[in-house]
Design a protein that fits this description.
Four copies of one chain form a homotetramer.
Chain A: E1 11-14, H1 16-19, H2 25-39, E2 46-49, H3 94-102, E3 106-112, E4 115-116, H4 117-121, H5 133-136, E5 137-138, E6 149-152, H6 159-173, E7 177-181, H7 191-202, E8 209-212, H8 222-228, E9 231-233, H9 242-255, E10 264-266, H10 289-302, E11 306-308, H11 317-323, H12 326-334, E12 335-346, E13 349-358, E14 363-369, E15 375-380, E16 389-394, E17 400-404, E18 406-411, E19 416-423
Parallel strand pairs in A: 1-2, 1-11, 2-3, 3-7, 7-8, 8-9, 9-10
Antiparallel strand pairs in A: 4-6, 5-6, 12-13, 13-14, 14-19, 15-18, 16-17, 16-19
């Protein structure tokens, strides 16, 4: 029913994995420049400023309970000028968004559900109404990991005005993408607040993608997410640990039938290149190259949003190849009706097969080795109801193959291959 | 890996819905005759004799605890001669199977997991081993709704011999289809027994479909069912009540990604025509015609096995049309990657949209009205990532339609429509 | 190990049931006067000011989220002068406590666990430390039914100083009894905060009873309550409904072995006389007279604290007799090892028998009719291991009785009788 | 209401801990002789033959599924003559019971709930009715650890006759004590069968103690056990492991208010002296002497039934002293209103204090060290509401002590002391 804003699963960069709560204008511009120059042509386009951009003293991934926030007179958080100098003079994120737009990219921000605790303490006004912050706040609706906000009571007069006012502000800045936090797994308690917020965003006059966090989203609420949002996280924060990557096969299995056409269950950011990794700044992603290939292959056949987590200016050649493989990224665009076919244990190693129809003809197959040792296996096309002669290409290597009924594939531990197959009649 | 026996979801007739535990040879032959004459040409082919065919006194749907069973010297149940006269002289079901085969149809039987309680009481032999019934029975593994069997302990010597011996017997009779009961939702307690039984069936030298009951099967055990069986029930016994039909949308949603290529999650028999309906023999199915269209549409786009439950010789015209619509049955054959697209409440009525790729080109859409009043709604093809010009045919009515981006459809309460859509480039 | 402050279960009056959050000095003095004149001689002695005495705008039982609170410079709430005029000039509750003491009574107050939200918003000081309110508050530890406080993080420097400072203040006022709320059923999350608070109270230099709310307390934490507190609520708020009174038999059964010697599982206030009853001020308690006798009998043989909930100046004769029966109140003092003996259904009516040893000789029996019709039953003393000749007195009526082995008793619906029995040798 | 058969908690010997399923007449007589000569004078009186006495091939603790059982024509199990020679000629246990009676002792047997599987297979008669075994058996009510019986359906005609007939038989043998198994923790499924069985036993014309197994009994069904039985197990099988002994403090705490006057929550047999201990026949109890003192002290102050598990003829001096301390056994008789007072951790060691009133004057105290190291602690009598001067005797050692308000006690790890205290006025 609703207009589809995110026709394909968004691709971009998010500041959290490398900068935690302390992202600033310089790092955002630097990464935007890099994306425009090196990645834009492959479809990467969003630059998203994650949490705490309104907190002047933020300096790491840790939150500062009760720290003062930058707000306007209407209870709305605004960028901290010491961290985002271009916002000075009440300009907010407009100058930074304009810069990102000038590069041919899109601009996104993170917000927390609710109204600032400090606006309630000071009982600030709400734009477009004579109600005040205290009158719409719910004192017991408070995020359990971030101290800054109270939830808003949708039943209160003034609640709609508040949410309308913040999206009006973001639209005036030129925001293209809003990652709203503390709103995804709290359902159904905050369901009505989500509906109010979603409605306000859709009515604000500017197309903005709405992304819900944190995960895991609730499968029984799938239709609600589809109705209210473009993206929703299907997992808690994803980091560079094999266990988390392995779990994603089950999460993707649960959500694959809800993917497509403006609805993008989100497997979270890609911890590639230089990242904080449990906030140890010395290192790069702990994923092996094979694990990163597995990650990209799964994210792309499942059509998860692709949000780069690492500091892009520090990317090495492998990371660049990983993120710019045109055939893999075509699968991210063209896959339809993706789903797992089987999970099988062969000689003590678990293998996983996914498939998807290619919108441009042919059928995608992705094969994963979830075990600890290399292995070779024979894949029967009859398991896919595709018995007969075929030709196919492995997308990472470009190797091609023809055969009948089945083919063999060898896979390193934690490794993956992706194929585009055509039947030959 | 395994050979695929049921390349498409089986279609047939099962005696339970109309005869309970008291099915006999005459009724089987009568229905086989009818199927051969009127339904075979549409793909209907299995004739399945359900539970208690080895119990001479069975006379209704109620079980008779501790009633004597017909068995051979090797602890194997055999048909009760008073109910299946052609089995006299130790011929078992061979004559009846031969008759069914002579009509161009296939023959199936129901079995209970385990070994007869009475074989254990008498400590009968097990073919091919010097072990006895007592030595392989598990005294505490007993079906809680049927009194006849003990489970078999897979760890005991003789257990494999027993299961080998029963499938050897069924193969010698010419059985094509085995519905094994008390084995589907009892997992994981009986998981090893299922594996043993499945292996014995596959090794018996004759292709037989293995169908598991009762449901609901356990979603977390999907790969086990796929490995061991051709069909498994995703629901408890299904009868002609709207609540049960409505629930099937959720059940099918949960199982759709596991459907295809010899794996057929089973929505249970079709209670159409004259059935016992809670064992009141006076009446016919309580489903309205629209509900029956909804049932067939869902079963076919989901590719559930189709097993007729009613007494076929009493079918009226509507029932015949319901079961012989060639385009709907083509969808049952050609649907691929079926899944729901959305469930939406519009004006207080819930609508449900499913889709599937057609293996012969085009895309299936099935639209359901799950509410209590008629309604008309607009369907956006963009929700299916199919924006643009299209032509399509409604499969029940044969009506055709062309358009761009969206179309309107009106649906009676509890009603359904099914479309085959082609995009026009 | 600890000094026992409440040697017997406290008896007194609490403002909640009749005044909600809006209690004021006048009503407190009026009830203290009444108690001193009419009830003190029977052992009633505590006058307890319940919640929100620091909130100037409180005017009913409803809380006012984000209303300003009266505080001193050290983050401590102080009485609202408009409601407690004698507190003017920084005197706090000292004048009111002095008045209550002058009547020969004791003075108690209600507090909420934690530190005022407003003290955190203003980042007030904490007495005796250079830490501030913000530094010890836990932003996500917030009572879900009252908006005023944040929990205090016991691990933070300054936390102990805060709790020390509030009990120092209460001691300086002359407080004898502290009912601490939002701390009883939240265990184990707030267990460490309870220990810190309890230690601070015990070390403050003045004997104060510590009563924990709200219930139901957690049976598996019995030893913790015994270690830290004098009273703890075994039920959610108790009101004048039979269902709640009936449930108390089970609650008392669960807690009876933990009663005695400074540990008083608390069945909550007595809703007698004029009370708000679901905040409808027009009426008096909905309990029948028999139900009130049942309540007093159970509370006294179980030795629950006895806290009057009604406005005492409006008591009628029945209520006065109910609360001044010297033999019943002697049971409240002298019962030891109380416990239920049996619950039995006789002719469709449930009867319940409790017993306790009398510290001054003899044995108490309390017999309850939990059913809807009057009944007579024979009680076997052998069920109490007291076979033989006996004499006994019914405590409400003063009737006496002698016999051997058993006796008969008749009871109205929801009614009770209590006996002191002596065996005759 | 019911007549109280077990006026005090039974004391005796049971064959299970030392002989498993293979007890025979010789071992029973040998232990009866020993008890009569050495233990009878201290109150020990029951000799109980545990499970499988009707199974001719039983030879260890393991059950033999589907082994033939000795039965009479009326579906009733009878002693296996090869194991109980005196039962030959249809005499059953009458000669053995007579022998035990001749020693001044009482005779008990173990039974399984239900009717023999083999009686159902053979469809034997039921005495006093024309119904047969098959007609009353419930095929799905089968003990999950013993293969011999089907439950009896209380709703079936013939069910009462069956239970009447077995107790008639046991009464004719002279049985004094029936330990009924597979009936205690299976509630509420088998609740009606328990009521039927209990009624049949009470109506059989001979006083018999009814003991229910296995545990743990369900606390929420306490009143049912009190109504139907004399004893019920509050634990699964108890063996000589400290963890099991330690848990018994919690189990006893849960059940203490239900103890007394013919109702004896049962902490299970005492694994003392030579026992099988996980069925390793080489060894004696693994409990240390202190642990055995702890066990006896807890069992006696709680008034659990006392059933010796070891082979008595192999007792050493310590075991004899353990079981013949007259003051400890007096506590087992005279304790009233037993309950724990506190559990406290002092210097990392948990101590537990229980108390009980002594029916002959004074108060019992039992103090336990549940930790791994020796310790000394001061016990405040004020915690028992017994402040003041006192004199007391330690019951195991006979040491006496006087003092005021408190006393010190030292305890070895896993050790216990028991006191009888008198206040001095």
């Amino acid at each position: 029913m609703s207009k589809i804003v995110a026709k394909t699963a968004p691709m971009g960069w998010n500041s959290w994995d490398c900068y935690g709560a302390s992202v600033n204008e310089e790092t955002v511009r630097k990464n935007a420049d890099f994306m425009a120059k090196h990645l834009k042509r492959y479809g990467w386009e969003y630059i998203v400023v994650d949490i705490q951009w309104y907190e002047p003293t933020a300096d790491s991934h840790e939150y500062h309970p009760f720290a003062p926030l930058c707000m306007d007179e209407y209870s709305r958080v605004i960028p901290a000028e010491n961290r985002f100098p271009s916002s000075a003079g009440g300009k907010g994120f407009a100058p930074l968004a304009e810069y990102v737009h000038s590069l041919g990219l899109k601009f996104g921000i993170h917000i927390m559900r609710g109204i600032p605790r400090e606006a309630v303490a000071k009982n600030l006004k709400i734009k477009g109404t004579d109600r005040t912050a205290r009158e719409i706040a719910r004192f017991s609706s408070i995020c359990n990991w971030n101290p800054d906000m109270y939830g808003v009571d949708p039943a209160k007069e003034g609640a709609k005005a508040y949410y309308d006012s913040i999206f009006e502000l973001y639209a005036s800045w030129g925001v293209d993408y809003v990652k709203c936090d503390d709103i995804c797994r709290e359902l159904p308690r905050e369901e009505e607040e989500l509906k109010l917020l979603s409605r306000a965003l859709k009515d604000c006059g500017r197309d903005m993608v709405l992304s819900l966090s944190p995960g895991p989203a609730l499968p029984e609420k799938a239709e609600l997410y589809k109705e209210t949002a473009d993206l929703w996280r299907i997992t808690d924060d994803f980091w560079d640990k094999w266990e988390l990557l392995y779990e994603m096969f089950s999460r993707a299995e649960r959500w694959c039938i809800h993917t497509g056409a403006g609805n993008w269950p989100d497997a979270d950011m890609l911890p590639v290149g230089p990242i904080l990794q449990d906030y140890n700044p010395a290192n790069r992603t702990k994923f092996t190259e094979d694990e990163q290939l597995t990650m990209l292959t799964l994210w792309c056949i499942f059509r998860s949003p692709l949000m780069i987590g690492g500091e892009m200016t520090g990317f090495d050649d492998f990371t660049m190849r990983l993120l710019t493989n045109e055939k893999i990224l075509a699968m991210h665009k063209n896959a339809r009706h993706s789903h797992p076919v089987w999970r099988r244990e062969i000689d003590g190693t678990e293998y996983i097969l996914w498939t998807a129809v290619c919108a441009e003809g042919g059928q995608y197959l992705a094969l994963f080795n979830a075990g600890e040792k290399a292995g070779e296996l024979s894949v029967s096309l009859c398991d896919l109801e595709l018995c007969g002669a075929f030709s196919m290409e492995e997308l990472w290597s470009g190797e091609t193959l023809t055969g009948t009924d089945s083919f063999s594939v060898s896979l390193p531990p934690h490794g993956a291959k992706a194929f585009l197959l055509h039947t030959v009649s």
